[in-house]
Write a structure and sequence with these properties.
Structural class: alpha/beta
Strand content: 15-25%
Number of domains: 1
Number of helices: 10
Oligomer: single chain
Bound molecules: S-adenosylmethionine
Shape: globular
Distance between the termini: 40 Å
CATH superfamily: Vaccinia Virus protein VP39
Number of strands: 13
CATH topology: Rossmann fold
Largest sheet: 9 strands, mixed
CATH architecture: 3-Layer(aba) Sandwich
Helix content: 25-40%
Order of helices and strands: EEEEHEHEHHEEHEHEHEEHEHH
Radius of gyration: 17 Å
């Protein structure tokens, strides 16, 4: 099957329930994956002997496959351990029929779907079938990289709340990096209140995106390769007095109505 062709000719899909595509059509699925998630996180973390990665969520697997391929291409010698929750079993079962970009190693897909686990020398991949928030309560830290790639904060709220970011804060290392495509102000505020510092990532190839770290001015490694600008949250709040973080309670309240 072909799926939906994006700007760089890699395919994506459309999710009827959330009413959104899995990738940005104009940036291109593969290009978005590489520029917003893989390049910045790898530039920041690849000096480490091992990398523990949380991919929220697996979707078509671009982030997971692209990280594995890129780490191999760059001759990364450390141990790579990837954990990715995914709630949509039907989606996973359909993935084998799609034609992935050649640069992505899709070989592990079959094993992941049948066994939810794949292992080779210095690589372990865990596909966690189920609801991500529930899965995060069982996963043990310290994660070095988080690909925060759920559907948008407006549609997929429970994976962008203050409490959700608090949990990410507990399970990540001091020198972790979180990458995301979203620049939603309520999401940024919630993540900031949870302890993360947001930076805007500017690149010519794709639209601006965000990286979070826990330490101020940490991004020398990224800044050497990519342009980053600190996001001034107190300034954002001063410009918009109504700005509020997203909280679990509000979602729960709304779902009761
Ligand atoms: C934007 S897509 C992820 C794209 C993916 N990172 C990729 O590289 O192809 C978002 C994914 O999150 C999954 N998802 C949404 N809410 C979830 C939840 N609460 N728990 C687990 N998975 C969830 C959706 O089924 C979808 O596959």
């Amino acid at each position: 099957m072909l799926g939906i062709l994006t700007q760089d000719l890699s395919f994506t899909l459309f999710n009827q329930h959330f009413g959104e595509h899995y990738h940005n059509l104009r940036d291109g699925a593969l290009k978005e994956t590489l520029h917003k998630h893989i390049y910045p996180s790898f530039a920041y973390s690849s000096y480490k002997d091992s990398l523990k990665v949380l991919d929220i969520c697996f979707g078509l697997g671009y982030n997971t496959f692209a990280l594995i391929s890129y780490a191999k291409e760059r001759g990364y010698k450390g141990v790579l351990e990837i954990h990715s929750p995914e709630i949509d079993r039907g989606l996973l079962l359909s993935l084998e029929s799609y034609k992935y970009p050649k640069s992505l190693d899709k070989q592990i897909l079959k094993k992941l779907i049948t066994q939810q686990y794949y292992e080779e020398e210095k690589l372990k991949v865990f596909l966690h079938l189920g609801e991500a928030r529930e899965i995060l309560t069982h996963l043990k830290g310290d994660f070095d990289i988080v690909f925060q790639d759920a559907f948008s904060p407006k549609k997929n709220k429970m994976l962008w709340t203050y409490e959700y970011f608090k949990r990410l804060f507990e399970m990540t290392s001091e020198d972790c990096i979180i990458t995301t495509y979203s620049q939603n102000s309520s999401m940024l505020y919630g993540a900031f209140l949870a302890g993360f510092i947001p930076y805007l990532l500017r690149q010519k190839e794709v639209r601006d995106s965000i990286v979070f770290t826990k330490i101020v001015n940490p991004c020398i490694a990224i800044a050497n390769v990519l342009g980053i600008v600190a996001v001034d949250i107190p300034h954002k709040i001063s410009l918009n007095k109504n700005l509020k973080a997203l909280y679990d309670e509000e979602i729960n309240e709304k779902s009761k109505q």
